[in-house]
Amino acid sequence: MSIERFDNVLVLAPHTDDGEFGCGGTMARLIENGVKVTYAAFSTAARSVPPGFPRDVLKHEVRAATGILGIPETDLRIYDFEVRTFPTVRQDILEEMIVLQQALDPDCVLMPALVDLHQDHKTIAEEALRAFKRTTVMAYEIPWNNLNFSQQAFVRLEERHVAKKVEALSCYASQGHRNYLNEDYIRNVALTRGINVGCDFAEVFEVYRWIL
Fold first, then answer.
1. How confident is the model over 81-102, as pLDDT tens digits?
2. Smaller CB count within 10 Å for the chain: N or C?
3. Whole-prediction pTM value?
4. CA quadruple 86, 89, 92, 95: dihedral positive or negative?
């Protein structure tokens, strides 16, 4: 069964760049095959922007990154929830997700894992399961934040999909100090997941709800 069985995929990113890292290659593959992908980033993490960059720099970087993957700006949603405070505003986040569900009616949602250590990521995962009760839901991998992540679904990727992911993540100049944006690391994670299932590259997901 192919990931392209879905027609309308929604990617939930707690912060700009989370979605690209977790499933950038999968997004590139889906879009290449004509699947509609909407990207929702819930925070631009203005409080965490390094000195020397404009406070709104991540709004511009996420537009550039998702554009490289092939997502038109009309399918990009950017919210301004304050970084590291999501547990205190979970009801507001849920209500925004319900609006997305009603407006988009996605047949697949990709999100962080419930086992993610970051409080913002975990809140997005918990509220998404409430908002998208009748939708296929899978969690993408953020290796440095995930404990006991279950590798249940693998999406095969080609070199061109990994290259798109690398190029998209390179748009985040303001996050260049973060070692997980290293190209070798990005490629090696995809290579490792591919080796696990006998292909060149892959991204892995934990399955929470699969509707056939």
1. 999 999 999 999 999 999 999 9
2. C
3. 0.98
4. positive
Cα separation, 98 vs 92, whole angstroms: 10
Q: Under CATH, what is the fold of the domain 3-209?
A: Rossmann fold (3.40.50)
**What is the C-alpha to C-alpha distance for residues 212 and 207, in angstroms, rounded to an integer?**
13
**Distance, CA of 60 to CA of 144 (rounded, Å):** 25
Pairing of strands 76-78, 108-111: unpaired
Give 101-122 pLDDT, tens digit per residue. 999 999 999 999 999 999 999 9
Q: Are the C-beta atoms of residues 118 and 14 closer than 8 Å to each other?
A: yes
Query: Do 146 and 113 form a contact (C-beta atoms < 8 A)?
Result: yes
